[in-house]
TrEMBL record:
<dbReference type="GO" id="GO:0003963">
    <property type="term" value="F:RNA-3'-phosphate cyclase activity"/>
</dbReference>
<dbReference type="GO" id="GO:0000166">
    <property type="term" value="F:nucleotide binding"/>
</dbReference>
<comment type="similarity">
    <text>Belongs to the RNA 3'-terminal cyclase family. Type 1 subfamily.</text>
</comment>
<dbReference type="InterPro" id="IPR013792">
    <property type="entry name" value="RNA3'P_cycl/enolpyr_Trfase_a/b"/>
</dbReference>
<comment type="function">
    <text>Catalyzes the conversion of 3'-phosphate to a 2',3'-cyclic phosphodiester at the end of RNA. The mechanism of action of the enzyme occurs in 3 steps: (A) adenylation of the enzyme by ATP; (B) transfer of adenylate to an RNA-N3'P to produce RNA-N3'PP5'A; (C) and attack of the adjacent 2'-hydroxyl on the 3'-phosphorus in the diester linkage to produce the cyclic end product. Likely functions in some aspects of cellular RNA processing. Function plays an important role in regulating axon regeneration by inhibiting central nervous system (CNS) axon regeneration following optic nerve injury.</text>
</comment>
<keyword id="KW-0547">Nucleotide-binding</keyword>
<dbReference type="InterPro" id="IPR023797">
    <property type="entry name" value="RNA3'_phos_cyclase_dom"/>
</dbReference>
<feature type="domain" description="RNA 3'-terminal phosphate cyclase">
    <location>
        <begin position="12"/>
        <end position="205"/>
    </location>
</feature>
<dbReference type="InterPro" id="IPR000228">
    <property type="entry name" value="RNA3'_term_phos_cyc"/>
</dbReference>
<dbReference type="Pfam" id="PF01137">
    <property type="entry name" value="RTC"/>
</dbReference>
<dbReference type="InterPro" id="IPR017770">
    <property type="entry name" value="RNA3'_term_phos_cyc_type_1"/>
</dbReference>
<dbReference type="GO" id="GO:0005634">
    <property type="term" value="C:nucleus"/>
</dbReference>
<dbReference type="InterPro" id="IPR037136">
    <property type="entry name" value="RNA3'_phos_cyclase_dom_sf"/>
</dbReference>
<dbReference type="InterPro" id="IPR036553">
    <property type="entry name" value="RPTC_insert"/>
</dbReference>
<keyword id="KW-0436">Ligase</keyword>
<dbReference type="GO" id="GO:0006396">
    <property type="term" value="P:RNA processing"/>
</dbReference>
<protein>
    <recommendedName>
        <fullName>RNA 3'-terminal phosphate cyclase</fullName>
        <ecNumber>6.5.1.4</ecNumber>
    </recommendedName>
</protein>
Amino acid sequence: MSGNLIEIDGGMMEGGGQILRNALAFSALLKKPIRIYNIRAGRSTPGLRPQHLSGVTLVRDITNGRLIGAEVGSTEITFYPGDITGGKYTADPGTAGSIMLLFQVSFPCVVFADKPTDFCFRGGTNAEMAPQIDETLMIFKPIVERFGVRFSCDIKKRGYYPKGGGEAIFKIDPCHSTLQPIEILDPGNIVGIEGRSFVAGVLPIKVAHGMADAACRYLRSSFPGISMKVERVKEPAHLAVGNGSGIVLMAKTGTGCLIGGSA
């Protein structure tokens, strides 16, 4: 630490963008200025990429803060947060960069904003090395709502690598005070599995069927007799940009817990 400035080594552990996103969110919430160096030192192309830069500048705007050194390729930034302010914000890296990573860095901040927040995010809705938008809505959303957080998401268009071009609108209501404590101590037994298998672009619907069928065969061997319902979708051409595929599965338990994953 240098004076009141907290210094964070962005090359710790895997040396990816997660340290950057977590540090920015905590800095905004705690109103503590930070200096992050060795940003993404563990990646083949270190420093800020367009998607990271969009997230950094978004948090700056949300907090009316001051940002030093933020540009594509930067391996060091200094951030002085101000007051978190709800409202309408847009972030667009101009690439297939993950929309959900923009959500990840900004959502914790506006949970305690002074008023509701509307985000318009553009980029990749289903990108590699990032949470899928379906996983966030099917699994993360119902869990975080148990803490008293309320948000909605309208997927205007899906975007896939390398074109991007997706767009999603998030509306977040602030908690105003504190989060509600919850207990998730007993996962319980799995009573049902649901999911979504999807393709877009030139990929045929049979690919979605193949992924869903293979997943169900594998899961039935471990959970015989469990109800399984996997939706198979071919994204309409006017609602998707690029070619892509994926599958998201969610297991429900007798105690109300949700367990999921995506590929």
